[in-house]
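Subject: XTP/dITP diphosphatase

B.,
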Amino acid sequence: MIQFVTSNEGKVREAREYLPETVRQVNYDYTEIQSDDLEAIVTRGAREAYREIEGDEPVLVDDTGLFIDAFEGFPGPYSAYVDDTLGIERVQKLVEREENHRAAFRTVLGYCDGKTVETFEGSLRGRIVPPRGDGGFGYDPIFEHDGRTLAELSTEEKNAISHRARALAAFADWLAVQK
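Prediction pasted inline below.
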């Protein structure tokens, strides 16, 4: 059993597609350190979650950010805050002023078994465009990959190519070797 520390049921459903283990959702609000480094954030979060959640089962945490090339990777780990304060339309308008519209979504997973923390990264390259589509959440309407925004993809299409899916696939491969 792996305890996936998240309040997002969609993330849990996606994780269950990649992991042969049973994944159980656990709502625990671990302390998210302020850092420009997703790996540092999930490493600290995974250790804390393992210590604080009852039971002896390993935990999995994740953190995701939108890294805009023209802004030297900003907002990165601060993506949720920027979305909450500026909104995706303002972010898109700021990027529109720049020559370079390229960006990447990055997810880092942190797995803690009580002894060590292992991290796994997945990324998806694309570009920032005016909002399109009705699906997804967050920055999906302004993030275009292969001609369509993530908000224009079905959940299945998005999950097949997403940054989180790539991190989960790497984790699943590693986990299979550990057995």
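The chain has one domain: 2-178.

T.
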